[in-house]
Amino acid sequence: MMSRYEEEEEADERERLLSSPRRGWTRALWADETGPGLGVSPGPRARSPCRWLVLATLAAFAFLQGLARNAWLPVQDTARAAGLFNDTDVALLANWGAVGFSAFPFLAALVDKRGLRVSLLASLFLLTTGCGLRCIPTDMNDARRWLIHSGQLVIGMAGPVALAAGPYLSTAWFPQDERTTGTAVGVLTSYLGGACAFLLEPLLVHMGSAPHPHDIDGQMRPPTLGTPSEALHRIQLLLYAELVVVMALFLVVILYFPAHPPVPPSISSATPRLGYCEAIFRLLTRPWSWVAILLYAVPLAVSIAWLKQLNLLLAPGVVITKTDAGWASLAAVMAGCAGSLVVARFADYFTGQLKVIVLTLLAGASIVSVWFTLSCLGLIPFLHFYKGNLLGTCVLFGACLVSAVPLLLELVVEATFPVPEGLSCGLAAFISVVAVGVPLFFLRTWLTEVTWLSWCLAGSCACGVLGILLLPETYNRLHLDVFLSV
C-alpha cells in the first residue's frame, strides 16, 4: 500500500497540477469551446463523430504490422526446405521485431511532440519500406535473404506505434466513458494480426511437411503437397498482397487522418504533459510506476512465449499438430479481443474500478494456467487432454489474460500521468517485447525440457495478482477530469 508520505506527495502534486499555469491554458482552451468557466462538462459536442474512423485506421495499421512482423515464422519449415533459410536465419527473423522496437524512444517522442498523424505516417512509411524490401525480385538467395532480414528489421521499427499508440489515441479522441474501449481496440489488433499470421502456413502455403509436435529440432518430413519452389511462389504472392494493402492504407492516411479532434473530449486530453526530462525523472523516482509497467509487461511476455511453444508443451501421448496449436493460439487471442471489448465497456461504465477488474481477470488466468499445466502433464488422472480441451483452455485463458491487457495499459497511464502516454506506454510495450525473448532464449539453450514454461506462465499470473493487490489505486488522470468538470 501507499505510505502516508506518498499519499501526501501525490495529493500535493495533484493540487499543483490543478492550480499550475498549465491549468490556465486548459481553462482558456475549454472556455473557447464550452463557454465561460470550467463548470461545464464536455457534452456531446466534444464527441467527434470521426473518432471511430480514426481508431479504425490505427487498428488497421496495427493489424497489418502484426501480420507482417510474424509473416515468416509460420512458414519457416517451408523456407528451410527450399534452401532459403537456415537455423540462424530463423532465429534472427524471430528477433528482428524486438530489435526494431529499440526505436521506441524516437517514435514515442514523435507521438507526444508531433501528434498521431505524423507518427502514424512515419510508421506506415517504415512498414511500407519493410514490406517493399521483402518483395524485391532477385535470383540470388544470399541477396534475397538479406533483403528479407532488412525488411523485417524495418517492419519491427514500426512496432512502437502499433503496440503503444492506443492509449494516446483514446485519451486524445475519446471522452472518459469511452477511453478504455478505444485503448482495447487500438492495442489488441496488433496481437490479432500476429496470431492470424500463424494460420497462413496451413491455409496458404502448407506443404504437408510439418514436423512432429515433439520434435524440438524441427526436422522436416518428406513433402507430400507441392514442391518447395511452388510453396515459395505462394509465399511471394502473399508478400505482394500485404504490400498492396499496406500501400493502400498509407494513401488513406495521407489523404485523411486528422492530427487532433476539433474539441478536446476531456479535461485531461487538453492538459499539457510533462517535458521529457521531467517525465523521465518522475518515472525513475516513482517505484509504483514501475510496478504498474511490469504488471503489464511480464504476464503478457510470458503468455506470448507460451502460445508460441504451445504444441511442445503437451504430454508425450498427446498428439497436437502445429495447425491445431495455431488454431488454439488464434482462439486465445480472438477470445481475448472479444472479451476485452466487453470488459472495456464494463470498465468505462464503472469508472474507477480498474484494479478490481484486473485483479479478477488475473486470478482467472492463474487458475486456468495451473489447470492446463496439471492436465496436460497427466497429473489429473480423471482428465484426459485432447484437442477440445486444449481449445477450451486457450479460450478461457485468452478471455482472462488478453482481456486484461488494455486495462493494464490504462493502469500504467493513470499511475504515471502526467507523463506523456507515448513514453509510458512505449516503455511498457518495449519491456514486454524484449521480455518475450527471455523464456525463448532459455528454451533454445539450456532448459530444452519445456514443462517449466507452463509453470512460469502460472507463476507470472500469480505474481500479477500479488502486484495488483499491492499497487496503490491511483487515478491521476480521472481525478483531473472529475475535479475540473464539476
From TrEMBL:
Q: Name one GO cellular component term.
A: membrane
* InterPro entries recorded: FLVCR1-2_SLC49-like, MFS, MFS_trans_sf
Q: What is this protein called?
A: Solute carrier family 49 member 4
List keywords of the entry alphabetically: Membrane, Transmembrane, Transmembrane helix
GO molecular-function term, one example from the UniProt record: transmembrane transporter activity
**Any stretches that span the bilayer, and where are they?**
52-72, 92-111, 118-136, 148-169, 237-257, 288-307, 327-344, 356-384, 390-413, 425-446, 452-471
Membrane-related topology note = Multi-pass membrane protein
Location of this chain's protein in the cell: Membrane
Q: Where this protein primarily resides, as one coarse class?
A: membrane
